[in-house]
C-alpha cells in the first residue's frame, strides 16, 4: 500500500480545513516546508490540493505548486480546481 500525505494549499499556505470550510483553516506554514517534512518522514509521493482552485480560482497557487513539484521531485497527485483540459494541461 502507498500512502500519499496531503499538502493542502490555501492563500499560499499549507492548511487543514474542518468540513471543507475556508474559515476553519488551521495554518501549518510554508507548503514546501510541509512537503519536505512528509518526505523526511519517509513519504515517496504527495497529494497536493489547491484549495483556492477548489473554491474557484484555478490559477491561484499555480507557481507555488510548480515550485513544489520541481523542488520535491516526487510523484504528485494534484486536485483542486481542475475543471477543463486547459487547467489539466497547465
Could you describe the 3D structure shown?
There is one protein chain. By secondary structure, the protein is α/β, with parallel strands linked by helices. The chain has helices spanning 31-40, 51-54, 62-72, 85-89; strands at 6-10, 13-18, 21-29, 45-50, 75-79. A five-stranded mixed β-sheet has the order 3-2-1-4-5. Strand 2 and strand 3 form a beta hairpin.
Q: Which features would summarize this protein structure in a list?
A:
single chain; 90 residues; alpha/beta; 5-stranded mixed sheet; 5 strands
Q: Note poorly predicted spans.
A: none
N- to C-terminal separation? 29 Å
Global mean pLDDT: 92
Rg over CA atoms, rounded to whole Å, is 12 Å
Q: Strand share of the residues?
A: 25-35%
Strands of the biggest beta sheet: in what spatial order?
3-2-1-4-5
Strand tally is 5
- Using the alpha-carbon principal axes, give the shape: globular
SSE order, one letter for each helix or strand: EEEHEHHEH
Helix content: 25-40%
Number of helical runs?
4
Biggest beta sheet attributes: 5 strands, mixed
What structural category characterises the helix and strand content?
alpha/beta
List the helices and strands and how they pair.
Layout: E1 6-10, E2 13-18, E3 21-29, H1 31-40, E4 45-50, H2 51-54, H3 62-72, E5 75-79, H4 85-89
Parallel strand pairs: 1-4, 4-5
Antiparallel strand pairs: 1-2, 2-3
Amino acid at each position: 500500500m502507498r500512502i500519499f500525505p496531503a499538502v493542502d494549499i490555501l492563500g499560499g499556505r499549507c492548511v487543514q480545513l474542518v468540513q471543507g470550510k475556508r474559515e476553519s483553516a488551521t495554518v501549518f506554514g510554508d507548503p514546501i516546508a510541509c512537503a519536505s517534512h512528509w518526505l523526511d518522514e519517509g513519504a515517496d509521493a504527495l497529494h497536493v490540493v489547491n484549495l483556492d482552485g477548489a473554491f474557484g480560482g484555478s490559477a491561484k497557487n499555480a507557481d507555488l505548486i510548480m515550485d513544489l513539484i520541481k523542488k520535491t521531485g516526487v510523484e504528485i497527485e494534484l486536485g483542486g480546481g481542475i475543471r477543463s483540459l486547459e487547467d489539466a494541461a497547465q
